[in-house]
Specification:
- The protein is an alpha+beta fold and 723 residues long.
- It folds into five domains: 287 residues, 3-Layer(aba) Sandwich (Rossmann fold); 107 residues, Translation factors (Elongation Factor Tu (Ef-tu), domain 3, Beta Barrel), CATH 2.40.30; 74 residues, Alpha-Beta Plaits; 127 residues, 2-Layer Sandwich (Ribosomal Protein S5, domain 2), CATH 3.30.230.10; 87 residues, Alpha-Beta Plaits.
- Helices cover 27% and strands 31% of the residues.
- The strands form eight sheets. An eight-stranded antiparallel beta sheet has the order 18-17-23-14-15-22-19-20. The protein has a seven-stranded mixed beta sheet with strand order 2-3-1-4-5-11-6, with helices on both faces. Strands 25, 26, 27, 28 and 29 form a five-stranded antiparallel beta sheet that branches.
- A hairpin with a 3-residue loop joins strand 14 and strand 15.
- The longest helix is centred in the first third of the chain and has 19 residues.
- The radius of gyration is 28 Å and the shape is globular.
- The N and C termini lie far apart (65 Å).
Length: 723
């Protein structure tokens, strides 16, 4: 089967936003206008295509990233049937809620562009900033869409200003709203200097008209600003412009496209998805300004055999290379593995090589997705997104490639969970099912972690927030039939050290016959992040939040015992020192020791390392760390004093306040442990008129008095004894 669309007509993009900015409503319009659905599903009716999970429809929020493939003919082309004029879109609708931020992060990795949706009333919100940061990290070109311009209190200029101040000064007006609130009539294009209305059923027909007289002065002013920003990116056009020769519309478009792809300009568009205004022009902008795979540099990776850098061109003729970015359990076909093909092609039924694990697997079937619906296809080409059926051992972030030309792409790094709770099955039958359910869910979601308490043998689940865990427990019940009792949400504390310390430990045991002998000298210190171009030295093993440096000289400890020392230190870190929480960001240096020809063994060195690490942690200023959340409270002015006082009583730090229409927005940093049940307390404090959003910001040292309470709750009476 030949490729349906040439590579330059392919667009892989995502729709991202803060919760309630209108992202799913926008996605539903996209599906309708591209002919993928015959009626528009509304979030408030629980009838959307992209929000297909029961939990999503009940709560009116997006939980999982939905992948959609569709075609688009630019809206101003009269012949909408001609296949030569169509473009192919692969769209991912991502969640807006902070608890499901992993979905955004992994989607950004495989997308070539993004539409970032903002609420015209609220402007930039906390999750908008996080999504923007993820897009920056992945180098994804963006188009901004200020939505909900029909709402009371919507203000384009204020929202635009919040983008400039809080996200990027590279944003520039590409459109203006024609009217506002209930009088919104359409949009004004500042590059083409035309206005557009959206008529007929669901605004299907895009009509180009002249700019109304009352908007001409503003349009001309901002047109000049836009042109200046565009020509700055092309020396020849800049010189011509300075000489008084304005480039043509086509020339400006071409330069703007290059600038958007290079992340030098972020065009800002506007409209109202709910009122069917502006979405088609955004799809036109996706065609005009967001990149195809051909416009982007070759994907970079390393050869897993030689560790040498490798690249792959976006071409069907290049060796096959793809990244698995998401797993999803399907009740009918089992595990679906979503992957983005960067180069080459792959057919259903062929064998693929997993360079991350070094295993070969058979790709049984390939399907193209429409949210929860599937179309089976024979072959996937470079630049496309699809899902594989029948691949058993592939996990999120694994690289799939041809065995004769292996490549390992950079893995996706996910945030660590911050909330944990205990869970136990109600019956013995549930116990078996629960283990399987949790394995499948943790494979699907890298931010969902399952562990066992060594002392109580209870199962502990950890995730990004209360809602995240609530949804996962609900999914266990509905999808896997697991009934379980859950404990109260608890904070996922961490431990670390504050300064350097050394320790020596000799583990010697004589019990008749062969004894045990292991002797280590270690130095521990806070781990330092690598510089951008810095490589890891040969004697250093570096993992997430842990570094082991082997500085043994002259064979003081034989090489076969070194991994046992490393393992022992990791084990000690997992047990914790202050209150039994996992220790992080520690560099361990093994610099001396001794061994016995007969009595030395791996277990002796492992135990010596555990004891030495604990001795060193005593002297290295071990402390508890707690997650600090970035909190944003929107409240009427009359309650501002109460809200501020309440935040301070929760060990919070108010960092600033600003005005948004008739309400005040308070920005604060508050420990997560103080935020459980806060929404309810806030509503009762403000007559139900205030609301809040929060997201994880960083880990910080727990004050000594609070640390003492945590230790008491954990049953830690004496640190020395615990160690």
């Amino acid at each position: 089967m030949a490729r349906a669309f040439p590579l330059h007509k392919l667009r892989n993009f995502g729709i991202v936003a803060h919760v309630d900015a209108g992202k799913t409503t926008t996605s539903e319009r996209v599906l309708f206008y591209t002919g993928m659905s015959h009626k528009i599903g509304e979030v408030h009716d629980g009838a959307t295509v992209t929000d297909w999970m029961e939990q999503e429809r009940e709560r009116g929020i997006t939980i999982t990233a939905a992948a959609i493939s569709c075609n688009w003919t630019p809206s101003l082309i009269a012949d909408r049937i001609d296949p030569e004029l169509k473009y192919s879109f692969n769209i991912i609708d991502t969640p807006g809620h902070i608890d499901f931020t992993a979905e955004v992060k992994r989607s950004m990795r495989v997308l070539d562009g993004a539409i970032v949706v903002f609420d015209g009333v609220a402007g930039v919100e906390p999750q908008s900033e996080t999504n923007w940061r993820y897009a920056d990290e992945a180098g994804v070109p963006r188009i901004c869409f200020i939505n909900k311009m029909d709402r009371t209190g919507a203000d384009f200029e204020r929202s635009y200003d919040s983008i400039l101040k809080r996200l990027s000064p590279k944003a520039v007006r590409y459109q203006l709203p024609w009217g506002s609130e209930e009088n919104l009539k359409g949009v004004i294009d500042l590059l083409k200097m035309k206005a557009y209305t959206f008529e007929g059923e669901m605004g299907m027909k895009v009509v180009e008209v002249e700019i109304p007289e009352e908007y001409k002065a503003d349009a001309e002013k901002y047109h000049a600003e836009l042109v200046e920003r565009i020509v700055e990116n092309d020396d020849a056009q800049m010189n011509a412009y300075l000489e008084g020769n304005v480039p043509t519309y086509e020339e400006l478009q071409k330069t703007l496209r290059k600038a958007v792809i290079a992340n030098k300009i972020f065009p800002v568009m506007t409209g109202s998805a709910l009122k069917n205004m502006g979405v088609q022009r955004i799809l036109d902008a996706v065609v005009d300004y967001l990149p195809s795979p051909v416009d982007l540099p070759p994907v970079k990776g390393t050869n897993p055999d030689t560790d040498e850098p490798e690249t792959r061109e976006p071409s069907d003729e290049a060796p096959f290379c793809a990244l698995a970015f998401k797993l999803q359990t399907d009740p009918f076909v089992g595990q679906l593995t979503f992957f983005r093909v960067y180069s080459g092609t792959v057919k259903a039924g062929s064998y693929i090589y997993n360079s991350t694990t070094g295993q070969k697997e058979r790709l049984g079937r390939i399907v193209r997705l429409m949210a929860d619906k599937r179309t089976e296809i024979e072959e996937v080409y470079a630049g496309e997104i699809a899902a594989g059926v029948g691949i058993k051992d592939v996990k999120t972030s694994h690289t799939l490639c041809s065995e004769d030309k292996p490549i390992a792409l950079e893995q996706i790094v996910f945030p660590e969970p911050v909330v944990a709770m205990r869970i136990e099955p109600k019956t013995k039958n549930d116990q078996e099912k629960m283990g399987m359910a949790m394995k499948k869910l943790s494979d699907e979601d890298p931010t969902f972690k399952v562990s066992t308490d060594d002392e109580t043998l209870e199962t502990i689940i950890a995730g990004m927030g209360e809602l995240h865990l609530e949804i996962l427990v609900d999914r266990m019940k509905r999808e896997f039939g697991v009934e379980a009792n859950v404990g109260k949400p608890q904070v996922a504390y961490r431990e670390t050290i504050q300064h350097e310390a050394e320790a020596e430990y000799k583990y010697v045991k004589q019990s008749g016959g062969r004894g045990q002998y292991g002797h280590v000298c270690i130095r521990i210190k806070p781990m330092v992040a690598l510089e951008e171009d810095e490589t890891v030295k040969k004697n250093v093993t570096r993992e997430d939040h842990y570094e082991f440096v082997n500085n043994i000289k002259g064979g003081a400890i034989p090489n076969e015992f070194i991994p046992a020392v490393m393992k022992g230190c990791k084990e000690a870190m997992a047990r914790g020192f202050v209150a039994g929480y996992k220790m992080e960001d520690i560099s361990v240096e093994l610099f001396d020791g001794s061994y016995h020809d007969v009595d030395s063994s791996e277990i002796a060195f492992r135990l010596a390392a555990i004891h030495a690490f604990k001795d060193a942690a005593k002297r290295a200023g071990a402390v508890l760390l707690e997650p600090i959340m970035k909190v944003e409270v929107t409240t009427p002015e009359k309650f501002m004093g109460d809200v501020n006082g309440n935040i301070s009583s929760k060990r919070g730090l108010v960092e600033g306040m600003d005005d948004r229409d008739l309400v005040k927005v308070i920005h604060a940093k508050v420990p997560l442990s103080e935020m459980f049940g806060y929404t309810t307390a806030l509503r009762s404090m403000t007559e139900g008129r205030a609301n809040m959003t929060m997201e994880f910001d960083h880990y910080d040292v727990v004050p000594p008095n609070v640390a003492l309470e945590i230790k008491k709750a954990r049953g830690v009476k004496d640190i020395e004894e615990e160690a």
